[in-house]
Amino acid sequence: MTQLQNEALWTSKWRCPSNIALVKYWGKRDFQKPMNQSLSFVLQNSFTEMSVELFKEGDQKVEFYFEGLSHPFGERIESYLAQLSVRIQWIEDYNFRIHSRNSFPHSAGIASSASSFGALALCLAELHFAISGKEPDTPDLWRKASELARLGSGSACRSIYPGFSIWGKAQLFEVCSDEYATPLYEGINPVFYTLRDAILIVDSGVKAVSSTIGHMLMNEHVYQPSRIAQAHQNLNELYLSLLTGNKESFVEVVESEALSLHALMMTSRPSYMLLKPNTLELISRIRAYREKTKIPVCFTLDAGPNIHLLYFKKNELEVRAFIEEELLDFCENRQWIDDRIGKGPERIIT
After folding, report:
1. Are residues 182 and 268 in the same domain?
2. Phi-psi region for residue 294, left (φ > 0), alpha (ψ -120 to 50) or beta?
3. How far is 160 from 37, CA to CA, in rounded Å?
4. Cis peptide before 270, with omega less than 30 degrees from 0?
5. Per the structure, how many domains does the chain have?
6. 268 Cβ neighbours under 8 A, 6+ residues apart
7. 346 assigned to some structural domain
8. Domain housing 6
9. How many other CB atoms sit within 10 Å of the CB of residue 317?
10. Which pTM was predicted?
11. Where does a domain end: 156, 186, 216?
12. Are β-strands 62-66 and 95-102 bridged in parallel, bridged antiparallel, or unpaired?
């Protein structure tokens, strides 16, 4: 983060990854707080780079450019900054010029709002600490960034930390909060830091029902109490798997969570389905391959039709051959993204 005299008064630039939830958050309460806790890991190759420049003068509050072009997402950012100005008063004193780019294509089954608001929140947190005269590079900076990210997009708060993190109050962890994510730095079996994620693009089109509407439908969902209990149980089981290196339990919980998420959509009122025929075919083939080879592969899904095929580095050659030979024919234009568990955000020095 630098202070410039001839151009922007202050500027900050960050790269922030997206993340994939293993225990899903579905449903909100209050403002951007989760109905149940979730557990995720960040990706390495799927990220947003964003720079935020502050000016005292200008014709508009927010200039937002995505990959060099003015973009309507700037309206959402302007609304977000207006909400934050209650908490961060200096926001009202500056105009913003924001440049953003993604390393992955839009609608590729990757949570771009998570990486985008994560990157924006990191910039804002760094600027806030600098303008306020606070010491940077402390745990408070990361917690502040996670909290600010949550206010833009709930899942974004989990993109702030490397590896695995939990968001939401959890029975096993008194330190966990609904306000921000909590990193899992200690005790994770090293095998889970070799996770690979092959993102299989079944359909790159816009979803028929947005995640925002899906979250709202959980308010009156008949299975809401059962889902909250299930999430607590699955988080406990998954965390134990991460500690002990139990791949079989990991596979079981991850797939159960993915299907539970879509079952909630299908049993909402009104109900809807985001899975496509090729999604179901891929799931069937992944399970058959696991049964035949005994290789611990599994799938997870976000709120969409695209598959995240999870496997371990030890089996990389075999699984990549499986993808090429059996799965890509069921992907849109044979598209897939090769990713893995990530090391978290990076400050970009210019």
Report:
1. no
2. left
3. 17
4. yes
5. 2
6. 214, 217, 218, 221
7. no
8. 2-186
9. 9
10. 0.94
11. 186
12. parallel
